[in-house]
Design brief:
mainly alpha, elongated
């Protein structure tokens, strides 16, 4: 199994945040669990934000006539 198969992709992370939000908003969790789920959701959102920034940088390089293939090391 390679690294990409182990870590959830952008869409999976977004879905997880949506599920966490639903749990918290339902009011069925004890307060302590709601806070833990909120913290987990905020961590995932920070990861998603970083991924979006990276993709935006990569697209900017490509739009500006940069390399035909852009890796994380090139931006």
């Amino acid at each position: 199994m390679n690294e990409r198969e182990k870590t959830p992709g952008f869409e999976e992370k977004l879905l997880e945040v949506q599920e966490l939000t639903g749990k918290i908003e339902s009011g069925s969790l004890p307060l302590e669990d709601s806070v833990k789920e909120y913290e987990r959701g905020m961590k995932i959102l920070a990861e998603l934000s970083a991924e979006l920034e990276n993709m935006n940088r990569r697209l900017t390089v490509l739009q500006n006539g940069g390399e035909t293939e852009v890796s994380d090391e090139n931006v």
